[in-house]
């Protein structure tokens, strides 16, 4: 109460109006005491931990104090952004955007994390316009089929007019799925396929999708902690074409994940298929785009192009010297993960290697980095 009377007195005895003050409880936008208490306790534990996350690196006491009472128009707080990183000290990044506005409201934290992760994309930089480039200049990175098991290129998209997972209502989830399934049913040619909603899925269909490695599970602990799995399985589903080389995930982490994939190392074919699919779907569904940040996504690591081009690859000699593998990958801005992606181990010496940068470069440039890096890794493996 003292703070409220003090603020009122300060306004009364100055030329300011109440609306001019950045005081949440005077603007009707107060962050409740329970949220503030969780924030303070979580921040204290994170600061005392040995976490190597980008969240810990950039959430200084000064930044924390400046942001802890702020809210977006959707009601998202700093806690909604960082609760996953507060709960999981082994996070690499530790922050998500509960809605598109969060990137602006909590920019003092998002901007340095984005700059660090995306290799120098500063808050004064602007992401270039979409450019798929000349697909013909790409190739099969492993024409002899000795090293690359499979190739995959995916991108994320958010539907315009909807917040991200933590702020979606159950009705919005259902509405979005209806729009997505009707849009995908219009795809033709090699993209023609079937949409399978998770809700009410039969055991036979479920097993079929598991056998094909298509079925995503309810969010991992990082997404669970970020409150991204509400109303599961409402509004979630999977689409794949008849040849099982094109896949769409609806409302897993992002609103849409569009994925092109096939066995072997023919990156040119895989990328061309994704480009055709995205161009077709964009004609029917408007996507959220930001002039500076590019295409908007739930996780800041996927902003910009949102493109992740990856291979499952066997590099037994390089794998025996993981430091060397990481060193070469780093030169080409590649990320080395376990066989099943982030937070997993390599199974049978098979690694998931992908481009790391998604901002400050075009879609084509992101894929070309992976293309050139994988060819170099194979060359070194042969020499060893």
Indicate the mean pLDDT. Answer: 88
> Could you say which structural class the secondary elements and strand pairing correspond to?
alpha+beta
Tell me, briefly, the overall form. globular
Low-confidence stretches: 1-28
Order of helices and strands: HHHHHHHEHEHHEEEHEEEHHEEH
Number of helices: 14
Q: Assign a percent range to the helix content.
A: 25-40%
Strand-residue fraction? 5-15%
Oligomer: single chain
Task: Specify Rg, calculated over alpha carbons.
Answer: 22 Å
Major sheet description:
8 strands, antiparallel
Strand order of the largest sheet: 2-3-4-5-1-8-10-9
Q: Span between N and C termini? A: 71 Å
Number of strands: 10
InterPro entries: ATP-guanido_PTrfase, ATP-guanido_PTrfase_AS, ATP-guanido_PTrfase_cat, ATP-guanido_PTrfase_N, ATP-guanido_PTrfase_N_sf, Gln_synth/guanido_kin_cat_dom
Pfam families: ATP-gua_Ptrans, ATP-gua_PtransN
Family: Belongs to the ATP:guanido phosphotransferase family.
Binding site for ATP: 150-154, 213, 257, 308-312, 337-342
């Amino acid at each position: 109460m003292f703070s409220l009377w003090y603020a009122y007195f300060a306004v009364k005895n100055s030329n300011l109006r109440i609306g001019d003050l950045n005081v949440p409880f005077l603007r009707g936008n107060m962050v409740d005491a329970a949220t503030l208490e969780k924030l303070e306790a979580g921040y204290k534990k994170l600061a005392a931990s040995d976490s190597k996350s980008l969240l810990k690196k950039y959430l200084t006491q000064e930044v924390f104090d400046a942001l802890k009472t702020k809210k977006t128009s959707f009601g998202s707080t700093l806690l909604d952004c960082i609760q996953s990183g507060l709960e999981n000290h082994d996070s690499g990044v530790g922050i998500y955007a509960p809605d598109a506005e969060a990137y602006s409201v909590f920019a003092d934290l998002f901007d340095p994390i984005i700059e660090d992760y995306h290799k120098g994309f500063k808050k004064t930089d602007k992401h270039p316009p979409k450019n798929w480039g000349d697909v013909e200049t790409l190739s099969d990175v492993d024409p002899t089929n000795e090293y690359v098991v499979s190739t995959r290129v995916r991108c994320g998209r958010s539907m315009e007019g909807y917040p991200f997972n933590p702020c979606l209502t159950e009705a919005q989830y259902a509405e979005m799925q209806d729009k997505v399934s009707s849009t995908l049913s219009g795809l033709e040619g090699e993209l023609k396929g079937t949409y399978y909603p998770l809700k009410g899925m039969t055991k036979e269909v479920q097993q079929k999708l598991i056998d094909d490695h298509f079925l995503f599970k309810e969010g991992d602990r990082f997404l669970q902690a970020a409150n991204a799995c509400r109303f599961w399985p409402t509004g979630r589903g999977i689409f794949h074409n008849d040849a099982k080389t094109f896949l769409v995930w609806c409302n897993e982490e992002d609103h849409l994940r569009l994925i092109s994939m096939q066995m072997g190392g023919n990156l040119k074919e895989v990328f061309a298929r994704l480009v055709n699919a995205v161009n077709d779907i964009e004609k029917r569904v408007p996507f959220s785009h930001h002039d500076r940040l590019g295409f908007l996504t739930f996780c800041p690591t996927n902003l910009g192009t949102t493109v992740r081009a990856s291979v499952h690859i066997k590099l037994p000699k390089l794998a025996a010297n993981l430091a060397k593998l990481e060193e070469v990958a780093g030169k080409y801005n590649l990320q080395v993960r376990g066989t099943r992606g982030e937070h997993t181990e390599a199974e049978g010496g098979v690694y998931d290697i992908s481009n790391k940068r998604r901002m400050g470069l075009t879609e084509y440039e992101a894929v070309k980095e992976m293309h050139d890096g994988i060819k170099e890794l194979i060359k070194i493996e042969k020499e060893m």
